[in-house]
Queue: 4 jobs
Job 1
Amino acid sequence: ISLSALTSCSAQKKNTTAPNGNPIVRDIYTADPSAHVWKDGRLYVYPSHDVAPPKGCDLMDKYHVYSTDDMVHWRDEGQILESSQVSWGRKEGGFMWAPDCAYKNGTYYFYFPHPSDTKWNDTWKIGVATSKYPAKDFKVQGYIQGIESLIDPCVFVDDDGQAYFYHGGGGKCMGGKLKDNMMEVDGQLQKMEGLEDFHEATWVHKRNGVYYLSYSDNHDKDGKHNQMRYATSSSPLGPWKYQGIYMDPTDSYTNHGSIVEFKGQWYAFYHNSVLSHHDWLRSICVDKLFYNEDGTIKKVQQTMG
Ligand code: FUB
């Protein structure tokens, strides 16, 4: 990790209720929701933030956090980070893509993909910002050293406290252990084997001792939109057994999801473009997720407000 601590951005709380259901955020465009339940009993969502066209994903420049205690009323916890706070980032800013957050030993770790150079696609780094709080006071600490230029970080902390880091895109998914400091990989990352048609958006969760790695694929049968697929394993690093599609495409070119249990119910977070009808102005959504008796996932039924 390169130690280049920068100033933090204090969150400004405001309430955003969503009595109409999906999309759960309607005042700004959000995508790539990574959901976690933290020790205060609330569910927190860490999405990326889409910005109005004519340009698209290059303009994504900041992160907000959302939280709820009932899956109905959502609180915008405010902005936690923007590209101007990243000293090693490309000078033009932008490209703050799909993030994740993890908690260990009293610290929250916010992981965000961001390029370090104008030639953005060859210079992706996974930045790490830390805080004592889940949704404010994050300070950039640097980025994870010694890994490839890939996007979409995911950090899974197992029951024994061991953290695993994943990232990937363009067909390659890599994973490995994190050291206790949560900012360095322990050894080399390895390719995740057994995933069928992997594109990006890795998410790992565990249920009844089984590890699930979910991801978006390259396209549906019409070659247009991502489907969400998953695979299972008895180990957090695979090899993985491909299990199928758990979510059909939305109206958006991309999809990116997370799966989490909250108050006894499992949920699938994802995004679509129903508010904008534009591929790069997306909106985060959530629907219930159910398992079959054998642990396979039933296809998620997407609902609208
Ligand atoms: O939001 C920017 C990128 O689009 C994400 O990193 C990908 O997963 C896709 O959703």
Note: The mean pLDDT is 92.
Job 2
Amino acid sequence: MWGHMNAARLPAAYPQYFARAEGCRLWDVEGREYIDFMCAYGPMLLGYNDADVNRAADKQRAEGDIFNGPSARLVELAELMVDTVAHADWALFQKNGTDATTICAMTAREATGKRKILVANGAYHGAVPWCNPYPNGATAEDRVHLIRYDYNDVASLERAVAQAGDDFAGLFVSAFKHDLGKTHEAPTKEFAQAARRLCDKTGAALIVDDVRAGFRLHMGGSWELVGVKPDLSAWSKAIANGYALGCVTGNDRFREAAGRIFVTGSFWYGAVSMAASLAAIAKMKQIDAVGVMQRMGQRFRDGIDAQARAHGVKLQQSGPVQMPVILFDDDAERKKGWLFCTEALKRGVYLHATHTMFLSAAHQAADIDRALEATDAALAEVARQFS
Ligand code: PMP
């Protein structure tokens, strides 16, 4: 196994293989059932196996998926993305988040004729050499044009822009600060406005990486919450509710440059995932999925806070309620965090101690309450072992 879903990186109690899933429930190959708070690390925004999305995908599959070019779904979906995403004048589709972030970087360089790309310390934008968080298998030259800054720190951003000088092509910002194992933070208005101002001043592209958060915080794009429009955005995970799709949206200033770069993939025109995305986005709007996830996420957060107080366990919940992370105080080695998760897992609730977790619009109050019974027992165990 590899990457972020490599179960060997999780405690031994975690299942490695899964058999099926429905709504917010997941079954492993041993037949154990879990209420899931990872949503396949993001994609399942409407819940697993959503009937409306599946119906649209099945209908398209019966007509065909891969042809010598796109189906009409491509045009319909590009129009829907442009109607939905506030900054978007055009859309370009791929399969993965990394495809989307890489195309954003290429478009920024092509449009500006410059090379430097700014990324925040600790931020994840994909696993290809230009942005891979680990050195293995890449060369120093692969990242020679990356410059780091600290998220939400205007002075550090200004220093990075100064370092880029007249070679500044683009600035990547995560939708919010959601680094692995770290307290999650919303972008401050001051930081978001500074990012916009510095890009306007220099002509560089402001790029929001909405791969993880896209459509969970705001249907118009996550930075609508701070009132700042990016030039380019990268999307993937949830936009087709589990069908493989990536997307770059951009404004008119970057349209021609996006058309000049050569990017492609054998499956990028696949119509099934586009049909799924059309149905998924329509349903997200129809049921106000963001509102549902906020209500359920708040219920979960309030419940855990009350339980932590009752058990005398100190922990911090951060991130938007629909994308939480729970970090325990005095827990540098994450022993409390993983004990909590393992105890919850034994009781049928799948959590993660360091990665952003995800609510879906399929989580209902009864599921949250059932999960809270497990977290209560898990917190009691943390209190018992660590007090
Ligand atoms: N950007 C962010 C913020 C992500 O969370 C991820 C995936 N975890 C990516 C980019 C890369 O997406 P993918 O794994 O689909 O290539």
Note: The chain is about 40% helix and 15% strand.
Job 3
Amino acid sequence: MDFRKAKFLISAPDIAHLNQYLPGDAGVEIAFAGRSNAGKSSALNMLTDQKGLARTSKTPGRTQLINVFELDEHRRLVDLPGYGFAQVPLALKKKWQHALGEYLQERQCLAGVVVLMDIRHPLKDLDMQMISWAVESEIPVLALLTKADKMKQSERMKMINEVRKHLGDYDDRVKVEPFSSLKGLGKPKVLSILNEWCQP
Ligand code: GDP
């Protein structure tokens, strides 16, 4: 699969609209989820070799949408709204969380979920919620530890092992890999996992 071919298709405020535009029983989707500022836009841009595909450093807390990028006629990448931004009113946070849960639990064409977490502070409650929603729906998860360039190799390995241990109960349903959009670290591994998920 050539991920450089990704191009913006549509935005949807929730799964009902998404289902209306793109019925869930059609094709294959790979979703990207993460706390706001985890490095999701940078990772999407890096993986598709397109600097401006997903906007980086958006003002957190603005109205958020599910953004869909088309890879080919049958395959799509889905950029889910970033969660966990402290200054968003509780009611709005709940609404987003609901939309994320709905997507992860109900979207039929979902083939895999990448949960992006800053390697310096991974596995927050909402990250665990995303991972368990996906696992309960039997969707494979890639827990991507972003901004890995911010840690020395020895610290990085220690953190990866800790996260793997913490998620050990999920066995091979959750893979854990380091990533750096800045340095390109982890890109071949991630692309190979995404490719696997793209197979029918
Ligand atoms: P998003 O809110 O999850 O989409 O996060 P962004 O992609 O906008 O990134 C948030 C901030 O982290 C920006 O200032 C990025 O430049 C920075 N950032 C993202 N990825 C990396 C990385 O791999 N290494 C470093 N050092 N900074 C990164």
Note: Residues 3-198 form a domain with the Rossmann fold fold (CATH 3.40.50.300).
Job 4
Amino acid sequence: TTSLVWFRDDLRVRDNPALLAAAADSAAVALYVLDEESEGVRPLGGAARWWLHHALEDLRGELDRLGIPLLLRRGAAAGIVGGVAAALDAEAVYWNRRYGGPERQVDAEVKAKAEEDGRHAESFQASLLHEPWRIQTGQGTPYKVFTPFWKTVSELDFRKPLDAPEPTQRFRGRLPESEELDGWELLPRRPDWAGGLRKAWTPGAAAGHELLEDFVDGALADYPQGRDRPAVRGTSRLSPYLRWGHLSPFQVGHAVAARRGANHGEAVRTYLGELGWREFCWHQLYHQPLLAERNLRPEFDAFPWERPGRKRSGNDGGASPSGRNANRGGPSAAARVRAWQRGRTGVPLVDAGQRELWTTGWMHNRVRMVSASFLVKNLGIDWRVGEQWFWDTLVDADAANNPASWQWVAGSGADAAPFFRIFNPLTQQAKFDPEARYVSRWVPEYASPEYPEPIVDVKESRQAALEAYQALREDN
Ligand code: FAD
């Protein structure tokens, strides 16, 4: 008999319960669907497409070694999975669960169709340590604050990682049609902007495991301090591997937790707390599928944020960081956004971060916070504009972590930083990059006369943001 295993954000053969089930006592065939058609499914950004191309090549190699063929298809997933299962006459279809709204809708359709056709359909927990519906407050509602969420969750055990399958059967029939990966054109052609990505990253499971080992043997020990220093390799840089499922949180969590002894207790706790933030973001997305579109705190709907090509979203004529600026003939919203995207705001830490992002597809967490805050609070731009830019340029662009973090920075999210706590990008630089090693790596001209003045006055724009926030509170 044959089983179909449908790969999604879990591009690995180890610790993959769906793959294990498919290969247990039948011949497994694997399928990946590039779905840009199903309603509501967010199309991948450019950097993500680049990563996916190499990730699928890597997965194909890993599956080859197990004698499991990988089929590639493009289109609306529900129809394709059903069709491939039928063509294979598969007895069962397996996958690991996803938690976004439109994705769950697609999965429900696949399940219904499979069962209608008399196939066994089964899904597994593989991408989150804890299922969102299992973690609730005493009142049976989702947690809105991280600390109590993590207190509850961190006391729970999570399972050990699973081995890769050892298939005993091979598929011997005729394989349904598969598309060519090159035909999907996931890689940029002209201009080829991916040189910096190639230099910075090796997508795939083996590279992920190597990074993980290096991290637990090295930077983990100093993680509580090192993680705030963008100039050093103080963090694990595992985010794209977790995003694409080359590594599971179970694998990362256990590898880190195994270092609890040897005076690493605090480092392990801090790191697991960051995995906890990942869980918290995904639980938010599960409960609020429109996380990337809607303010979690609706009072922010009236905030006079600007977007290029659009009038201010708020309706009052009160102060807004950018409105004020525009009144003085300052740069338009479009010009401010462009300067931010290109790392030409005249604020060194922000520019360094944005250039790191553009070149490597990744940005240090401390700098993400500062740069996002600058866009939203000093430049007065709607957080969704920044979220979309990150979505397009990050190799770890994540459907939950990205919008949840943007809402956290903007003040509109769950357990968000209070709006009035506005990062000062200059103080942040002095504190976390005191010798300007990070800044001079990415903005070598920052101390020279060529470097522009800040596009907005940091203090004035901060004041204007606070006034806009005050007006919002008075109106509510
Ligand atoms: P480490 O410090 O080594 O952390 C380990 C892992 O924990 C990370 O790989 C990640 O999976 C998780 N993690 C760490 N911090 C956070 C956090 N604050 N929220 C959620 N998970 C976290 N992370 C993404 O994975 N994808 C995104 O699209 C993304 N967008 C962000 C946007 C903004 C505006 C901000 C402020 C943060 C964003 N983050 C995002 C969170 C965080 O910046 C990255 O996860 C982190 O920088 C990745 O580097 P690392 O793997 O070295 O992290």
Note: Residues 128-159+204-287 form a domain with the Serine Threonine Protein Phosphatase 5, Tetratricopeptide repeat fold (CATH 1.25.40.80).
